[in-house]
Amino acid sequence: MSILWAQGSITAAGESVPLTQREAASGLLGSISLTCWIFLLVPQLIENYRNGNAEAISLLFLIVWFVGDVTNLIGGAWAGLVPVIVAIAVYFCIADGVLISQCLYYKARNSRLEAVLRRRRSSTATPDPTTPLLGRRFSDSISETVPRRRSLSSSHREALLTNGSVRQPDDALAKIVEENEDGQKAWVKNMSSVLAICVIGMAGWTIAWQSGVWKPAPREHNGGVHMAAGAQIMGYFSAICYLGARLPQIYKNYCDKSCEGLSLLFFILSLMGNLTYGAGILCHSTEKNYIITNTPWLIGSLGTMVEDVIIFVQFRMYAVAADTGAVL
């Protein structure tokens, strides 16, 4: 979620520079990218809340990503960026902390509930005739409050069995139709969200430009932005974190053979944010010195797009596998 490249445009308040098509495109793309990052974590927060757990998402993924945002913040402060850029970097760190806290909360809560359930089950495994029925009912109510673990085999059993009997072909067909309808609704929702993000981003840039908050970068900056060596090092370190963060999630999806519980919109916004971010840098300038200066942030944005595509493939591959297993 690096935003250091925006320095050239936002700090250029002292020189009047005509707005070119490339500079306008850079500003629009940068604003859309920033909007993606601001709303990025919201879909996954909602998904975790609906499921009552956060087992689908790799905690290591979030922690490494958080480290990347922290080093990005340090780099921004070190480079002497304007306060609004530093404030946005702080927001990113806070948003990461909220999602990590939610995951830890659900993990601790569900562990406690499962521990209570195990104790209740062990005490009622061989119930004595004198055991009050209230105790059994309490145990049953506890089991209903514990969110079910993500398990491919359990989802297959639910698809194959109905009231202890093999599901009839008509029932399986009806289930597939329902899932297709849900998939269409999800597709419409995701595309609507992406469209809304683009509209908000473009509107935000237009307002900033018209009000004078955003100005085209002076020509002297086109050859490269003067940046402290320490800030550059922080940029490379954050890029490494961003590149490595998704690997634990990809591996977890592979081991679970499922992406159930992950928000597809979360990764769509990530891909879109990285794409518009890298494109915004290249639209601003393609001169050698400028590209070299922004290399760590180009690596951190465009490089992670490959990993996002891998996760999209996993979404599709494991969804198809689940549907095939439900029909068999």
From TrEMBL:
- Residues of the signal peptide: none
What reactions does this protein catalyze? L-histidine(out) + L-arginine(in) = L-histidine(in) + L-arginine(out)
> Molecular function terms in GO for this entry?
basic amino acid transmembrane transporter activity
Record's keyword annotation contains Transmembrane helix? yes
- How does this protein lie in the membrane? Multi-pass membrane protein
KW Cell wall biogenesis/degradation (keyword) present: no
SMART domains attached to this UniProt entry: CTNS (SM00679)
What's the chief localization of this chain?
membrane
GO CC terms on record?
lytic vacuole membrane
Matching entries from Pfam families are given as: PQ-loop
TM stretches of this protein: 24-46, 58-78, 84-106, 194-212, 224-243, 264-282
Q: Which UniProt keywords apply?
A: Membrane, Transmembrane, Transmembrane helix
Give the superkingdom in one word.
Eukaryota
Q: Where's it found, cell-wise? A: Membrane
Q: Could you tell me the Gene Ontology terms of the biological process aspect for this record?
A: vacuolar transmembrane transport
Q: Which family does it belong to?
A: Belongs to the laat-1 family.
Q: What is this protein called?
A: Vacuolar membrane PQ loop repeat protein
